[in-house]
Amino acid sequence: MTDLAVAFNCINKPKNANTLFLATERIARKLETGFFQIQALTILLNSLYKGEYAERADILLTEIEEMILEMDNPFDQPFLLENLTQVLARFGFCSKAKKVAGLIEDTPEKIVALYSLVEAFYQQGQEVEAEEIFSEIKKDWDLICKDMDEESLGEISVVLAQIGQFADGLAKMKLQKLDSFVSLLTDCATAFEKVECGLSIVILREVVRIVGWISPHWQQIYQILPDIERL
């Protein structure tokens, strides 16, 4: 419903968009469990920023922050704050995202949230700020592999690649499934292209060739990938 509201706004039908946003908000507020209510409101927040309803989104952001901090179950707080940080970072609200990330006390969730902030700073050309946060994260480097799940490690690996930290990113890809490893490298394609045009295909083709030694179905995929001669 929120995606449809954004679409209406994009085609200059703000009245229709507003109706859908209000309907979504009413549904979210009727959810009895605080955790799911906050999740639903965070999705709405994402759509409001996407639809350029900044003033309305800022009001909702303040409310969501207060709801999270007043929760009866503190164990849900880190995950919800992490999601909120990622939404803000996605739309370039780095100062707001940094403030929310600062509220996270659990190290794994805080690291994932800060990585999304590092990526946002780099995309805005604020490399000094990105490097400062990256240096802060490296203090807890050993905890990254120890306490994080595979999905979170994958997200971090991609962000590291996108900011040019390829060695650190690949070191974090300690995944058991080869398919997951290849999938993550595919997510890093944009970062490889920044280094050299066509590099992503060169890397993926070689990785798929080697993976094919163990998993035969990758051999067929290897034959499809074009062979690019590097200059």
If you had to describe this structure to a student in words, what would you say it looks like?
The chain starts with a helix and ends in a 7-residue tail after the last helix. The chain is mostly helical and 231 residues long. The model is unreliable at 1-13 (pLDDT under 50). The chain has helices at 2-10, 14-30, 34-50, 54-69, 77-90, 94-101, 107-123, 127-138, 141-147, 150-162, 166-171, 178-187, 189-195, 199-211, 217-224. It folds into 3 domains: 1-72; 92-174, no CATH class; 175-231, no CATH class. 75% of the residues lie in helices and 0% in strands. It is built from 15 helices and no strands.
What are the salient characteristics of this protein?
3 domains; disordered N terminus; 15 helices; 75% helix; mainly alpha; 231 residues
Structure, briefly:
The chain is mainly alpha-helical and 231 residues long. It has 15 helices and no strands.
The major sheet is characterized as: none
- Kindly provide the radius of gyration, computed on alpha-carbon positions and rounded to a whole number of angstroms: 20 Å
- The averaged pLDDT comes out at 73
Q: Approximately how much helix is present in the residues?
A: over 70%
User: Approximately how much beta-strand content do the residues carry?
Assistant: under 5%
Structural class given helices, strands, pairing?
mainly alpha
What is the number of E strands? 0
Count of runs of 4 or more consecutive helical residues: 15
Distance, first to last CA: 49 Å
Uncertain spans: 1-13
Pattern of helices and strands: HHHHHHHHHHHHHHH
Outline: elongated
| Number of structural units classed as domains | 3
